[in-house]
Amino acid sequence: MTLRRTLSALSLSLCLGAAAPAAAEAQTERSAVPETPQTTPDPSDTPNAPTLPPLGPDVRLYFTTFNVFRWNPLGLESQNRLILQKRLYEGQSLLTRDNFINGGVSLKANPAALKVGPVVEFQPLAILNLRATYEFVQFMGTMGFLQSYGDPRMDFSDDARDLTEGRSYSTSGHHYIVEPTLQAKFGSIVVRSKTSIEYWNMDLREGNTASFYDPLLDTLVPGRGWVFTNDSDLLMLATPQVTVGARFSAVWPRYTDRMGPGASEVDNSHMRVGPLLAYAFTTREGTAFNKPTLLLHASWYLKHPNRIGLVPYAIVGFAFTSDMLGG
């Protein structure tokens, strides 16, 4: 592989969605400890009574960024969101305390593509979060991207795409995403499962029945069709700054027979699993540099059309949040 191809691949995208910020936020939860000792016993002081986290601001404006480098496949991307958030109600229990609705704008950028659009998020209970995003997607035709295929059975491996790099072209389209997340905390243990339901509508040379290689999903995506993904985490909050655990990830593209005879039977899905570590350099909140967090994750493919052997998938990410109002 030439240096140019190596740099081209290195410049491409990956994100862990909101998984790293969520892990960082979970592991920096503050406790509501009274500033002075109480002289009169209170029912909440009983050993079995849980300590409620502090109530968040009624209105909050903040900026969040997640920048990530990926290996196998190689990639580099910056994901950014500017969010205005409103608390729904004053919850009086662990289940209802963390609630909100918010909206804002999302921008994902790398040297080969841009994705920009509105995002809304709704969390009525601490265990349930629902996010919806629309992205206008623009591939610039640089660094071997975008490449499209008339048949989902075609070889889209790294080596095959290197050989056909000259076929890449500039194009645009639309990306719709709905992400329900279930999450819970039991003492120092956090469990979380985020499903992504995605619909793509891209303008491809081969027409409406074609597919294209997306570097984030690392598979052939139907130009007009559905993709489903899942990221599930089992985490332990080892200290206020350190989170350790494991992540399972999977991607399932869906093809239809209008893409060719038997296309609906083509399986370009993949799965991987491996350890995860997040370290927050500080746990400060309400500042311009909240919870700067380093994320390390390595995993091995349980299944993939092209990636076999012992070479792991790995990412290194850095995330932080800046409060502008109400932090």
- Tell me the structural class: mainly beta
- Low-pLDDT ranges: 1-47
Helix content: under 10%
Number of helices: 4
Tertiary shape = globular
Q: Please provide the ordered H/E string of secondary-structure elements.
A: HHEEHEEEEHEEEEEEEEE
What gap, in angstroms, lies between the N and C termini? 48 Å
| Record field, number of beta strands | 15
User: Could you give a short account of the major beta sheet?
Assistant: 12 strands, antiparallel, barrel
In short:
By secondary structure, this protein is mostly beta strands. It has helices spanning 3-10, 19-27, 94-97, 158-163, and strands at residues 59-71, 75-86, 100-110, 113-125, 128-139, 148-149, 171-186, 189-202, 211-214, 219-222, 224-237, 242-253, 270-280, 290-303, 313-325.
